[in-house]
Amino acid sequence: NMINFLRHITPALEKNLTASPVSNFTGKLQITLFKSGLEIDIQCGQIIDIGTWKADSFWHTPAFPDLTFLQLVFGRRRCLELTDMYVDCNVDDQSAQVLDALFPPFKGTMWLGN
After folding, report:
1. What is the strand order of the sheet 37-43 is part of?
2. Could you give phi then psi for residue 42, rounded to 5 degrees?
3. Other Cβ atoms closer than 10 A to 85
4. Per-residue pLDDT of the chain (114 residues; tens, 9 = 90+)
5. Cα(76)–Cα(73) distance, rounded to whole angstroms?
6. Other residues' Cβ atoms within 10 Å of the Cβ of residue 91
7. Distances in Å between the alpha carbon of 20 and those of 11, 17, 61?
8. Is 66 helix (H, G, I), strand (E, B) or coil?
9. Inter-residue long-range contacts of 52-60, CB under 8 Å, 24+ positions, other chains counted
10. Which burial class, exposed, middle or buried, applies to 69 when counting CB atoms under 10 A from its CB (0-12, 13-18, 19+)?
């Protein structure tokens, strides 16, 4: 489950945000994954909660179809790359700055154990 995973890595996400130009961001990132959605509530650079959210519209919120959000989460693509590659991806500039700060680029190999 994406929400449980993001809650689990919250300390790392906050560390990434602290080291960025948007370190004092306050707001709610409401992200639609089309079949589901999530909301990341951030106050002064601290993640208060990560929960489910259902979009009323796909055009005024960050939108990532299918598994494209995973490319961002695991540092393979930035928001601008995803919006250039996939016509259904939509991210406003401020949300893109915060999401890119939360999920910085990662070029290494990831091994998941049991």
Report:
1. 27-32, 37-43, 46-52
2. -120, 130
3. 11
4. 899 999 999 999 999 999 999 999 999 999 998 888 999 999 999 999 999 988 776 566 899 988 899 999 999 999 999 999 999 899 999 999 999 999 999 877 666 666
5. 8
6. 23
7. 15, 5, 22
8. coil
9. 52/3, 55/30, 58/32, 58/34, 58/88, 58/90, 59/90
10. buried
Which residue is listed with tokens 């707001």? 27
Residue type, 45: G
The dihedral sign for the CA sequence 73, 21, 108, 113: negative
Look at the block and give the residue holding tokens 């949300």. 95
**Residue 110, pLDDT score:** 62
DSSP run (H or E) holding 81: helix 79-85
Q: Which residues pair with 47 in a beta bridge?
A: 42
Whether the CB-CB separation of 79 and 91 falls below 8 Å is answered with yes
CA distances from 45 to 17, 41, 104, 105, 109 (A): 6, 10, 16, 19, 28
pLDDT score at 66:
82
